[in-house]
Amino acid sequence: MKLIIHIFLKDVRHLWREIAVSLALVVTYGRNVPYSWAHPGVAATGAAAFVGAFFDAEFWARMLVVLVPLAWAFTVIRVIQSESLVGDRQFWVTRPYDWRQLLAAKLLFILVFVNLPMFILDLFLLAKADFTPARYLAGLFWMQLLITLILLLPIAALAVVTATVVQLLLTLLVIVLYMTVSSALSQHIPASSFISTDPLPTILLIATLFAMIALQYARRRTALARSLILGLMGALILISLAAPYQRLINRQYPPLKKGEPSPFQLVLGQNPGTWQRGSVPDPKEAGMVLPLNISRTDPDAILIMKGSRVELDGPNALHWDAGWTSMNSIDLLPGENLFSVNFAMPRSLYDRLMDSPIRLRVSLAFAYFRDANRRKFVVPNGTFSLPEGGLCSAMPIEPSMQLGFPTMVSCLAPMHRPTSLFLTLKLAESTCPLRQGQPALAPDSLGRGWIQSPESPAEFGISPVSQFELAPLSYSNVPPYPDSSGRPPTGICPGTPLTLSNPQKVGDTQLTQQFEGYHLPDWLKSTPQR
Amino acid sequence: MSNGTIRTENLSKQFKKVEALRNLNLTVPDGAVYALIGPNGAGKTTAIKILMNIFGATSGRAEVLGIDSARLRGRLLSSVGYVSENQELPDWMRVGVFFAYLRPFYPTWDRDLEKDLVRQFDLPLDRKLHDLSRGMRVKVALASSLAYHPKLIVLDEPFTGLDPLVRDELIQGLLDRAEESTILISSQDLAEVETFASHVGYLEKGQLRFSEELTSLVDHFREVELTFETPPALPKEAPETWLQLSASAAVVRFIESRFDPEKTNRQIRSVLGETRDVAFTPMSLRSIFLAMAKAGRELSETTSEASTTGVAKTRGGAKTSGIDREGAKS
Q1: Does A455 reside within a domain?
Q2: What pTM was computed for the model?
Q3: Which ipTM value was assigned to this complex?
Q4: Are residues A356 and A400 in the same domain?
Q5: pLDDT for res A404
Q6: Pick from B49, B75, B105: CB nearest A88
Q7: CB atoms within 10 A of CB B239
């Protein structure tokens, strides 16, 4: 222990500048963030924004969200590389350092100058936001674990296989290139964007990073440790290429069992003739769009469309399968029924089938939520408490209107945003003043918003206080604004009645529906340019 | 493996296509001041870095203080002092802080000895390491490696680029502690090494050409100058122990690498016939090193020519295979 402290104190003496900068940033962040809570979303526009940004608390709060972790990462790199594990000229490798003591000294340093300041910062921010820190200790430790696994561990693993910061940045560049290439590769496996192959890649990644650190400290075998990264990169690509996506889709989105009620039925909509007929990059392909209309059997169903698969059966037993493609999580809130599925098919196949009636089979993978716990809520004046939303208050009306934001309610929540909070606003009931020249809103015009966050003790980040806005983000039955500015019609002000609810996830599932006797030209999205 | 502070057994190291060490069998006896000499790229630093477990061997094994060198780490290094010409020191530290930092790592650290060394080497305790000259940095490194009475001191080219005064100071500092330690030093500064080494090993192209006590080595080597009545014909194949055989009119010169007065005289007569005059001159370590290096170069040129022409040429005295064998025995 004596030697651990001895090495630790040496590092403190050596890296006092890095420590001072990182602590100064933490303190600045701690001072700045509460100010940005009090003045949310208020910023100047135009040239004034550029100049004013430097004096704007929210701008600095956002900058510091990046700068503080960067300072921590830099401190971790410097402390590890102060006894570099790469090379054969370092004085310490022929001195009686015990690798366990060296590693422990480095961990102690990171604990004292990264984890502890973050913990104290988090306690301070919770208290400043009027939450009781002692109630959120589990969440605070969870945040420490996340920041350690997501930021500190990868940086430490890179620091043990590089001798200098520049070398580490170059390695990071290589990793970014790798991620770009693997992302380009994944474009060829559309299902990979909405089907997770976890936990295998995550386990592999974390195990490799730990192995690299242990291997370097225990044996200083840099080539082997570096080859572990290369091996991991190869393994992750192999996993994404070789993953049995169909099986994974069936496991993550199990098809409805026989007799199991479906939350909706699909109806193939009419081609409104207004589909954009843009160019298709590949002239050998025909871009198709299927307008779909859902008829809900469960009126409270909220659907998030994750992926789609289109299969065609033509004459002479001809069968074509587009495979699964991502739908980028299209939300279908209650009352929203229209969406479309896009796919591309070989132009030659299109030409062969265009005159024949075809059988179309559409499969959809979706998350199914049911709206629940619906209740009325009138937005009070001043600060008020929402059971699932923390502490909220209506934002000032004037600045929001001038900047084109809807007037909204700003909330601070401890550890994470609400897991699922849905608001419905009858726009005609809003107490916010109408803008000049704005047409009157119909009684059935609605504004809706849905706030979701994963169920976990805390979200990843450096602040335990999540700031979010309770605002309508999608509108229905709203006449276009006269100046076509796209400004939202109205917002939430004190006295505005809202309907709040907590949609509960029913499950992830898969629905397949078949359509007979259709003609492909009806769904041709674009004409290839020849 | 048995006796010796350092012993290696068929130690080899391959760096991709370069064979840096080939079956090195080296023994550094307890208490010896062993000078490992050889031309640049001979494998001296590689051998030392394997011994210090800075990197691993490709094959073979090495023992340091009775411990497999691959296990030499942590506390086991508290009996070993290592100084290298290009060692990276913590430049941000002041000299005094550097000593203070190292002290707790060594249970045998001797504060009085530290003070003596600081005085002897005239070290500025309040100056940062990166502000020091190269010579001063080597002195700091050496002082920090002597202050705990190491059983083994390993020095890799410590004198390179140093002025004579600093070299003398370092050597004096080493000699003052030579009785309590075994010293392995790799160097090309042969004149200095000759003044204090007890044993010498000559490494070339990753192989140990000879390894023996310095006095015995110097006894084995003689510059031989033979004067004949008429210019003699040089033999096509001279004895393997004759290096750099050359003739100028009636004078023949060569270096005898296994000098024995009776045997050498007999060999001269049988190879070259009767001479008018014979002179045997003792050689300095530097001259021996140069002779060995030249012989090695000539051998490699011969080998290279042979490999390109397909004809194996031999030159009198340029072959060192005989010395290899004898050297390995000694």
Answers
A1: yes
A2: 0.84
A3: 0.80
A4: no
A5: 60
A6: B49
A7: 21
pLDDT tens per residue across span A365-419: 999 999 889 999 999 988 898 887 789 988 776 655 556 666 788 899 999 999 9
Mean pLDDT score, A504-528: 83
Alpha helices, H only, chain B: 44-51, 95-102, 111-121, 134-146, 164-177, 190-196, 214-220, 261-272, 285-309, 321-329
Task: For residues A513 and A497, state if they share a domain.
Answer: no
Specify the higher pLDDT residue, A261 or B56: B56
Specify the number of domains making up chain A.
4
How many Å separate Cα A350 from the centre of its chain? 37
Q: Which residues of B touch A97 (CB under 8 A)?
A: 73-74, 77, 105
CA B73 to chain A, closest CA, distance in angstroms equals: 7
Q: What is the mean pLDDT of chain A?
A: 86
Closest to B173 in 3D by CA, of B145, B198, B201, B194? B145
d(CA B323, nearest CA chain A) in Å: 34
Contact between chains at A96 and B75 (C-beta distance less than 8 A):
yes
Choose the closest CB to A14 out of B89, B92, B105.
B92
Chain B residues touching A89 at Cβ < 8 A:
84, 86-88
**What is the predicted pLDDT for the residue at A312?**
92
Are A95 and B52 within 8 A, CB to CB? no
Residues A5 and A87 in one domain: yes
Is there a single domain that holds both residue A410 and residue A466?
yes
- Indicate if A381 and A365 belong to the same structural domain: no
CB contact (8 A) between residue A96 and residue B104: no
| The pLDDT of residue A483 is above 60 | no
Domain presence at residue A250:
no
The whole-angstrom distance between B86's CA and the closest CA on chain A is: 7
Q: What residue numbers bound the domain in which A97 lies?
A: 1-143
Indicate the residue of A14, A94, A96 with minimum beta-carbon distance to B106. A96
Q: Do B104 and A2 touch (CB under 8 A)?
A: yes
Asked whether residue A209 is assigned to any structural domain, the reply reads yes
**Domains of chain B in sequence order:** 6-214 (3.40.50.300), 221-329 (no CATH)
Tell me: do A4 and A28 sit in the same domain. Answer: yes
C-alpha span between B143 and B123 (Å, rounded): 9
Between CA A195 and CA B114 the distance in angstroms is 66
- Residues with pLDDT less than 50, chain B: 2, 302-330
For A36, B35, B114, B155, the CA distances from B166, given in Å and listed in that order, are 63, 19, 18, 15
**Residues 105 through 124 of chain B touching chain A, CB cutoff 8 Å:** 105-106
Q: How far apart are CA A335 and CA A300, in angstroms?
A: 9
Same domain (yes/no): A170, A81: no
pLDDT tens, position by position, A220-229? 999 999 999 9
Q: Is A258 domain-assigned?
A: no
Q: Which of A82, A88, A91 sits opposite B89 (nearest CB)?
A: A91
Residues A109, A22, single domain; the answer is yes
Cis peptide before A244 (omega within 30 of 0): no
CATH code of the domain in which A279 resides: 2.60.40.10
